[in-house]
TrEMBL record, chain A:
GO molecular function, one term: metal ion binding
Cited Gene3D superfamilies: Cytochrome c-like domain
Lineage: superkingdom: Bacteria
One Pfam family recorded for the sequence: Cytochrome_CBB3
Domain called Cytochrome c: residue spans: 123-207
Record keyword Iron present: yes
Name of the protein in its database record: Quinol:cytochrome c oxidoreductase monoheme cytochrome subunit
TrEMBL record, chain B:
CDD domains: Cytochrom_C3
Gene3D superfamilies in the record: Cytochrome c-like domain (1.10.760.10), Cytochrome C3 (3.90.10.10)
GO MF annotations, alphabetized: electron transfer activity; heme binding; metal ion binding
Chain ranges of the Cytochrome c domain: 75-167
Keyword 4Fe-4S recorded: no
SUPFAM superfamilies, per database record: Cytochrome c, Multiheme cytochromes
Keyword terms, alphabetized: Heme, Iron, Membrane, Metal-binding, Transmembrane, Transmembrane helix
Record-linked InterPro entries: Cyt_c-like_dom, Cyt_c-like_dom_sf, Multihaem_cyt_sf
Name assigned to this protein: Quinol:cytochrome c oxidoreductase pentaheme cytochrome subunit
Record field: transmembrane: 46-65, 195-221, 252-270
Keyword flag Transmembrane helix: yes
Superkingdom of source: Bacteria
PANTHER family, per the entry: CYTOCHROME C7-LIKE DOMAIN-CONTAINING PROTEIN, LIPOPROTEIN CYTOCHROME C
């Protein structure tokens, strides 16, 4: 009688502790309810389950005999689910921007030919300021004086308000954001072309006081012309 | 005239010490010698300056054989400092190597006109074949210094004045100020955590000691009392023992204990059941010990700088190695330590071998629910920290929120919508005018099943 009682109490305690260990924390992901919903069957871009041995506890009747949750594309390099676009693919944005063709060293050409296609207005400036604060302040600082916290560590950050930079063309700034220059890395993969041009507007108008800006190109006519012009040059220059 | 003036000074000084007197005699002799050989190719002036330098070095004062255009005046130094701060300071320091060389003494190392030409257009001077600047260019890994054509000759003179005479640092004074700063920090820090633990520990020990002492006193007193002549009642009281067994067997005790155990087990069981499928607190070790506390906290890099998808797509994106390399091409170790940090080396290996870094996924919604980052971050203007917690303080990222349906719905019920200046909401606001409450996410379909489950 006494043994039965002790056993039952022990049983309850053990059940309680087992359930408590379902809780996630640290390296433990916790017990999953409907695990097949957590381990996607379809390929997911940022997830990759490479374990092809472990069979699941619930169902494991895959035709290819792989582990229940195996989810990697065996045809891709490193079995990744993401894949680089086919060579010579031309991505198109809704604004019709074509890929940037100038190479990193073609800074002179970019500086003289590129014109800001975004019309300058207050909204663009506000957005430009926001974007500048996201992507540029770590190094160039809020005022553009090259005094950002990360810039202090990296060193050699341009003072955008300094004499050597204040007269640079908008195309030059756009090229440097896209391809990098000196100690600055290329930010073309992080910031969309439209956003880069908005940052250029903000830098030119607010930080550099509008010196050598493309304001003349803000009328609709000229913008169209510039865009058409760009497309021509872009088709002619070889792909990079 | 100049020589005569200096002679007076020398004589004044000479009265101080015999050693200096000897030197001054020698200098006087040399000066008179130079005056005689005025027409020599070397020239009086240069020789006099050389001697002056020698003399000042001997008496412990610094001097530079600088061009007369580079004047040591407060005005010129202040103006030069402004030019320096605007154009030079991110790459150069006066007395320390940075991206470029330490600048002090620049106008001594090369003729002043070449120094000025170099500041204006460094590449032209290097191309002209100046060997000193070519060597310097090589020493600094062919780092190109940008042109400063816009600087006027006056700017350049002021700049050189600042470079030669500005902000001289007395090492002893510098050490003293840092020492004082250090002391102030230590004094202003309050009581550190470790001390609190120590104090608590000591208190516990003291309490235990008091308990032991009390126990000893009781036993001594009991012993003393049992030896005395006492009444029967008193004797019984003194010799009585606490009967623990009786207490344990009492109904009251059994009921209380059973109730407590049942409640505890039930609570653990329910909590455990509720935690099934919830990964809150999951904080796996990552392949690279990346610290959000350092990057997002101390260095204040915005989340969007690396998580580029957060404003344009469903997923916030894990940055690719090229984004790391924007900074880590130059930053090779933490807090300015020497060498390459083993953790940062992992990025270099990944880039060199074109090998993906396999980060461990922390936040994972089941396939039955749809979530879109851009919708919440751009349209809803929700801060990252609202759902992800104090990321800027996390060394290792863990899942902060429960990410259950109840959690989503709670927020949708409470969050008001900013409708001003957005024509999209005009009709919805009109439809909602009857209600007393403000327009919330729940009112525009935030509770509809098919918004997230389809």
């Amino acid at each position: 009688m006494k043994i039965a009682k002790t056993l039952s109490i022990l049983g309850i305690a053990v059940a309680g502790i087992t359930l408590a260990s379902c809780r996630a924390g640290g390296e433990n992901q916790g017990l999953e309810f409907a695990p097949q919903m957590y381990h996607s069957v379809a390929y997911e871009p940022l997830t990759q389950i490479t374990d092809s041995e472990t069979k699941g506890e619930i169902i494991s009747n895959r035709e290819d005999g792989k582990g229940e949750y195996f989810n990697s594309n065996i045809n891709n390099p490193h079995n990744m689910n993401m894949r680089e676009p086919v060579a010579n693919t031309v991505p198109r944005t809704k604004n019709g921007y074509l890929p940037y063709r100038y190479k990193a060293f073609e800074i002179e050409e970019a500086g003289t030919t590129l014109k800001n296609p975004i019309e300058l207005n207050d909204e663009v400036l506000t957005e430009g300021k926001r974007l500048y604060q996201l992507y540029c302040t770590p190094c160039h600082g809020t005022g553009g004086q090259g005094d950002g916290k990360v810039g202090a560590i990296i060193g050699g950050v341009a003072n955008l308000t300094g004499g050597a930079y204040i007269t640079l063309s908008e195309g030059h700034i756009y090229h440097v954001i896209t391809k990098g220059k000196g100690r600055m890395g290329a930010h073309g993969s992080q910031i969309t072309p439209e956003n880069r041009w908005k940052i250029v507007h903000y830098v030119k108008q607010e930080l550099q006081g509008g010196q050598n800006a493309d304001n003349a190109a803000t009328t609709a006519e000229v913008v169209e012309e510039v865009e058409a012009d760009q497309e021509v040059t872009q088709v002619e220059t070889p792909a990079n | 005239m100049r020589s005569a003036l200096h002679l007076c000074n020398f004589e004044k000084l000479a009265s101080g010490s015999t050693f200096a007197g000897v030197i001054i005699n020698r200098i006087n002799y040399l000066i008179s010698y130079n005056m005689l050989s005025k027409r020599s190719l070397v020239g009086v002036r240069l020789n006099f300056h050389t001697l002056a330098v020698l003399f000042f070095m001997l008496i412990g004062t610094q001097a530079f054989a600088a061009d007369p255009a580079v004047v040591n005046s407060d005005e010129a130094i202040a103006a030069g400092k402004a030019v320096f701060n605007a154009n030079c300071k991110t790459c150069h320091k006066l007395d320390q190597k940075m991206i470029g060389p330490a600048l002090r003494g620049a106008s001594e190392r090369q003729p002043i006109e070449i120094v000025k030409a170099f500041i204006k257009n460094s590449q032209a001077v290097i191309a002209s074949g100046n060997s000193y600047y070519n060597d310097l260019y090589k020493e600094y890994n062919n780092t190109i210094m940008i042109s400063h054509e816009f600087l006027s000759d006056e700017d350049l003179n002021n700049l050189l004045s600042y470079i030669e005479y500005g902000d001289t640092v007395d090492p002893a004074a510098a050490a003293a100020t840092t020492g004082a700063d250090g002391g102030a920090v230590a004094a202003g820090g309050g009581i550190p955590n470790e001390y609190l633990t120590v104090i608590l520990g000591v208190l516990v020990v003291v309490l235990l000691l008091i308990l032991v002492v009390l126990g000893l006193i009781i036993s001594v007193l009991t012993k003393y009392l049992t030896k005395q002549d006492l009444d029967v009642e008193d004797k019984e009281f003194v010799t009585q023992k606490t009967n623990l067994g009786k207490v344990f067997k009492s109904d009251m005790f059994v009921v209380i204990v059973t109730a407590l155990v049942v409640a505890l087990v039930a609570k653990t069981a329910l909590d455990g059941l509720y935690s099934v499928g919830i990964q809150q607190g999951y904080a796996p070790e990552q392949p690279i010990a990346y610290s959000h506390a350092l990057h997002a906290g101390t260095l204040e890099i915005e989340c969007q700088y690396c998580h580029t998808g957060v404003e344009i797509g469903k997923s916030a994106n894990i940055p690719s190695a090229n984004i790391c390399m924007n900074c880590h091409t130059h930053v090779q170790n933490v807090q300015g330590k020497e060498g390459v940090s083993p953790e940062i080396q992992k990025i270099y290996d990944a880039v060199d071998n074109n090998q993906p870094i396999e980060w461990v996924r922390v936040h994972n919604l089941p396939d039955l629910a749809y979530f879109n980052h851009s919708q919440h971050v751009v349209v809803g203007e929700v801060e990252c920290q609202t759902c992800h917690g104090p990321i800027q303080e996390m060394e290792v990222v863990g899942q902060h929120s429960a990410l259950t349906m109840g959690w989503c719905i709670d927020c949708h019920r409470q969050t008001e919508i900013t409708t001003e200046g957005n024509a999209y909401y005009d009709k919805l606001v009109q439809l909602h005018t009857d209600s007393k409450d403000a327009l919330k996410v729940k009112d525009i379909g935030g509770l509809e099943c098919a918004k997230c489950h389809y």
